[in-house]
## 1
Amino acid sequence: MAGYVTDWRDLYRGRARCVLRPASVAEFADVMAYCHVHGIAVVPQGGNTGLAGAAVPDGSGQQVVVSTTRLRQIRSVDAVDMSIVAEAGITIAELQSAAGDAGALFPLSFAAEGSATLGGAVATNAGGTAAVRYGSARDLLLGVEVVLADGRVWNGLRTLHKDNAGYALRHLFAGSEGTLGIVTAAAMRLVPRPAGRAVAFTALADEAAVGAFWALLRARCAGAIRAAEYISGHGLALVMHEMGLRAPVARAAHHVLVELNAASADGLCDLLEGVLAEALEQGIITDAAVAQNEDQCAAFWRLREDQTEAQKRAGVNYKHDIAVPISRVGELLARCRAALAQRCPDLLVLPFGHLGDGNIHMNVVRPAALGAAPHPEEGEVAGVVHDIVAALGGTFSAEHGIGRTKTDLLETLRPAVELDLMRRIKAALDPAGLMNPGKVLRQE
């Protein structure tokens, strides 16, 4: 059962009574009804690629892991309705492929898409590299099928693009991390598949230029921006060293990867090159390279997508999935770098992430050469980062969720009224507290 009781980051190792792998919604309903009657706590799990420990049981050995990975049907794809209905165990990459076969695009995209599942993506409200244009999982969610804590099944798999009949219940389950019910299928929005693609990798000298570059991109290319991804200079150096990659531009303190998409390739590269020329002329960027073919596009993207793996190889990771208003990203980068350099000079500050929506992964690595344990500075690092984020009007959880990692932060940093509303919703849908206890909300 090792793969079911350990998280991807190897931070949590739990124990479980057993792992159940139902193959149908009816079997899920039977499992939940039985657990409800007998007071057995349930931990729902998809691809187990989450970064906040939400899918791992505790150490009691009394909880049951219920996996969705055998729910493998794509129930419908409609290129007129621009919708796809699929079961929870389908991976994001498989959804992308099925949408592509229908001439459409499923736009949710992130590094773990080959193993992350639809149910988990909805349950955590996963974001990713294209969220700046298409939004997170909740923004793409049209309908949902959920097995509730008592075994009842709510079939809300509507593919309507407008439905204003009462509360939007589907949105309760997007981001609930298995604490309100188990998502067994979802209806998701598709978008037209773009025919044109242009990708560039840029270098910038300072933090102020990061915000200025985004403002210029948005002003000139707003309708075409698919991604604008930030990578620190130290992060680029690390991914080159650990993963054997090459940089397409001169090394700098900051880098931004840009991708434009459009219905037609006509003029798209010219648009991107024109913006880059303007940015160079204004001194916003210091160097740029435009991908000339798909292989180069993939090579540019690996510099961003392999950041997590490179940091994992380099030492102990202190991850901070934070977001601030886009206008404050440059200030965030400058203040965190300066404060952490002063407080913890032996650590590597390696931020990267989604510039276009203000979601920066302010990651810090304790180099392996310093030894694996103890590392008492982890709490100090988190305090520094979260204090700065709060001062900038940001959030401590942008796309990875709360899980078990951030329950204390939620209790500390969110208003009492907000927490009370969350507890009331939890109590209404899971009065016995059997759904993923101890995740999101602190266990009373």
## 2
Amino acid sequence: MAWNVRKLAEAVGGEAHIPKALFEQEIGGVVIDSRKLLPGDVFIATKGERVDGHSFIPQVMEKGALFVICEDAPQGDIPYIKVRDSFAVLKAAAKAYRALLTIPVVAVTGSVGKTSTKEMIASVLSEKYNVLKTEGNYNNEIGMPLTILQIRKEHTAAVLELGINHFGEMERLSDIARPDIAVITAIAECHLEALGDLDGVLKAKSEIFTHMGPESTVILNGDDEKLRTIKEVHGKAPIFYHFGEDGCEPELDCPMVFPLPGIHQRRNALAAAAVGRVLGVSDEQIVSGLKKVRAVGGRGDVIDTGRYTVLNDCYNANPTSTRAGLSTLCEDRGAKRRVAVLGDMLELGKEERALHYRLGEYAGKAGPELLITIGPLSEETDAGFAAAAPSREHYHFAGNGEFLEKAGELLKEGDRILLKASHGMHFEEILKKLKEM
């Protein structure tokens, strides 16, 4: 990859105060977290709301940093490059580094299922490649460049998650990531405050194609109405995966494995299989990789508390992902009682109340025996459920605390419980309490 101090310095600009003898030195990696620095890395000192990275410069030098990139010149005999904006430099460094990489880079986006699909793709590719994947919520204009900069010599493939909520963000991410393979999982009612409607969501997500080369590959969910309208990207037809009554695509030569419950997770597994096929992973390896997938916390993991079975899907929510969660909950006909605990879905724009009401109607048809809604917008979900299923039990609460005061009375041993709400509703508080009951 020939990633050395000279090339990094050229990429970031600024005022270099580095000994000439250091310029041909190979770089191990680039970090902004002093705790993650390894000898031979470069440290970028960023100024955050709570922490100023400049205060850690002496420590990173003691740990073996080659030099630091900073906005304020450090004291003492420390090699550094002074720049105006450390976060802008982070993006420039990642873009320059990405241009040197020869390994396949897979980028995953979509309104729902990004993280689960990323995990499945990484697991499948790990049967053949040494994979670097996005960790945690590092899918934005800070986290994604940092992930690229964590790619080391031993890695032979990378799987990146790309998340956005405004127009233009995906184009900037694509300019840095330059994906060889782009996967879009779904177009759904998400971030409508900024994106307007489903056509706006499609437009924003499709920005991922902007900086892809002519030999790159686009993989799309063929069961998604909006994604099916994409006929070609840079003159090349996309690969579609789908899961329907007439079978699934891709169809493997050995029995397919779906590691997580729910039809939406089956589609995610098919996306991973499609990526595996493109990158030369055998069908047997694809199945082996899928068998090793485990749910990421808050995104569909199943938790047995001893008293309840909890479908923990409370990391985030929009109407499409919540409907999928309800479908997964109600697929289990063997549960003593199926309970949906739903909270507000945020950032849905001017149609937010109508979308919550329609979700309630869907819940009424889906079949949970008990619906509990929490939050001001979810009062509409409660109303929709009451209209669609007037004979079934339902309760609405203003906040988590009010529900938790009554939870012991409303819930019964053996209940199968779905927790689903936007991250801002802090449903992790409810999960913690359920584990203690």
## 3
Amino acid sequence: MDVGTKTIGLALCDAMWTIASAAHTLSRGKFSKDKAKLAEFMTEHQVKGVVIGLPLNLDGSESPRSQASRAFARNIADLGLPILLWDERWSTQAVTRMMIDADTSRARRDELVDKLAASYILQGAIDALTL
């Protein structure tokens, strides 16, 4: 997950933990409704664990957004899935650069960036955990 203040980018990986794919972007609203949508998504896609992007400062220190991501993780812990917080410092920049290089329009980039960032975060975790 790429948890932002306005949206939550979601990605999924295959059962063999090989490749992450962008899945969906949820618009954020009231937390209870967001959590219900996440639970429905997780059930529908048989999710077995959650990776949440942890936005650290460039020097690796925590930021206010890091604390918000940690709080989000605590608030969804009762969904009963293992949760891993993963460094996401370069995720949005990396996928934005990729889309610019692919000559993607600004409107299309805005539509895709969160779920692509989520897949970038998830792929980083997969790669690190399976090497």
## 4
Amino acid sequence: MTENLIVVAHIVANLLWIGSIAAVGWLLVRAHGAKDDATGTTIAVQARDLYRSVASPAFFASFTAGVVRVLLNPSAYMKAHWFHGKLTFAIAVIGLHHVLGAKAKKAADGGRQNVGTSGILTLSTVICATVVAVFAVLKLPS
């Protein structure tokens, strides 16, 4: 029963995390394309605030639940070939999460010239998160 609750916590945290970090990226795209600096900065502040208030706490909850789940039965996960693929793409998502967060912080401070790549980073995040889900659900070998 406890293991099932950890899985539920991991899934719910992932939903909040990926949805919010994707929204951060999309807000950065809007900030970059804003017609004036004030509007762009306002949108970038919203992106940064969403990153801090939802995306980061949801990432922490997801990461914690995932680590706890693996620690409950580490040998089973290390032997599961699908897990290695899932973990590889999850690490990519974590990296992209931090890059988007750094861009949001910089853009909120007025440095919007560096957010032009946010669209491709957001798309990459969503694609990698989708691949993680495919490995987890279908148990595909890596």
